[in-house]
Amino acid sequence: MPNIAAWVSKQGISGWYFQVVRDGMIDADLPVYLVKRPYPFATLETLWQLSNSKEKFDAEVIEPWLEIECLEDSWKKVLAKKIQQD
């Protein structure tokens, strides 16, 4: 599908993010476990909503997102522009 990234963004859908802890092979039928959730407020759905909204938000809505160490700078730049200036 041409321009699939734009289509996925428009649909508001995505997969999931994960980290490889140890190299190796696994079988498709092995279970996957959530080890930790350091930012329970930070869901992909909320990230999509905030970043794609035409609205501006109070700083206290956006600033916790900017503190997420592992969030890509490109996302942080988009979110920083969403802070409502007084």
How would you sum up this structure, described in words?
The chain has 86 residues and is mainly α. It has one domain. It is built from four helices and no strands. The mean pLDDT is 86.
Instruction: Report the order of strands and helices.
Output: HHHH
Query: How many β strands by DSSP?
Result: 0
Q: Which residues form runs of ≥5 with pLDDT under 50?
A: none
Task: Report the biggest beta sheet as strand number plus sense, adding barrel if it closes.
Answer: none
What is Rg?
A: 16 Å
Structural topology:
Blueprint: H1 4-11, H2 44-52, H3 59-66, H4 73-80
Features:
86 residues, mainly alpha, single chain
Short description:
The chain contains 4 helices and no strands. The chain has 86 residues and is mainly alpha-helical. The protein has one domain.
